[in-house]
């Protein structure tokens, strides 16, 4: 059977090679399309049985064009790029690879945070993270890694996650919170790890930002869609002390940059999972999961059940 690996943003070369080798070793055929556009995807997916992607948009139209497709594995955590309802309609199993790239994302949280509190390394006097308060919004795999690293910085760590029991948060040495307003009002640093869902989209804006203590930094390595950009901009207008770092440019990046120089930083592309290690771990997991599904229906990480 043919497994298509389609990534607009390529994996590290060693990871792409290992993924291809694993697929071939399983007796399947591999097609690797990197830096591909929509047209390339439509063409390559037409005879694919399995599909491995990253943040690439896989909608109904793609599935309509892929009559043999049985499994899509998102090499990564967030699967908001895949139309799950359409996949179910097409009898396609969708899986992600939880945890495989979470350390990479967590490290970037601190990479961007240190950069911001050191004034983007402009040579002026900044501040330290030691002794400061960090609130983690959603305590999944990335949130847990963020907590682990924050302890090395000697930060006070709290977390909010309605789906995780208090004991599980406490077991990581983190104080559980139960109210999003508390999370924002009690923490100088808030790191977002919520998925983009109809409930969370545009959920972080003016009101929450205005609750943050003086000198606050909002760190977004989740999805740009969870931010109400207009609301956040209004808060940053009224409060010259609030700063915002985001892994991927917001839609209004140019406005943010023009209005708040030195107070915002955005990666040009989503970079959180863009490490050799994360590419390898997530890519190999995606290959193994696709192979196992095509062999005997293995679907442990199915997300469209
Ligand atoms: C994820 O959801 O796993 C991360 O956002 C990484 O996405 P990427 O594979 O597009 O870098």
Number of helices: 12
The assigned structural class equals alpha/beta
Tell me the major beta sheet. 7 strands, parallel
Q: Would you tell me the overall average pLDDT? A: 98
Domain module count: 2
The CATH superfamily of the largest domain is identified as NAD(P)-binding Rossmann-like Domain
Q: Give the N-to-C terminal Cα separation.
A: 24 Å
Assembly category: single chain
The tally of strands reads 12
Provide the list of bound ligands, each named once: 3-phosphoglyceric acid
What spatial order of strands do you see in the largest sheet?
8-7-6-9-10-11-12
- Rg for CA atoms: 20 Å
The level 1 CATH classification of the largest domain is Alpha Beta
What percentage of the residues does DSSP assign to strands (E)?
15-25%
Helix content: 25-40%
Q: What is the CATH topology assignment of the largest domain?
A: Rossmann fold
**Low-confidence runs:** none
H and E order: EHEHEHEHEHEHEHEHEHEHEHEH
The CATH architecture term of the largest domain is 3-Layer(aba) Sandwich
How would the global form be characterised? elongated
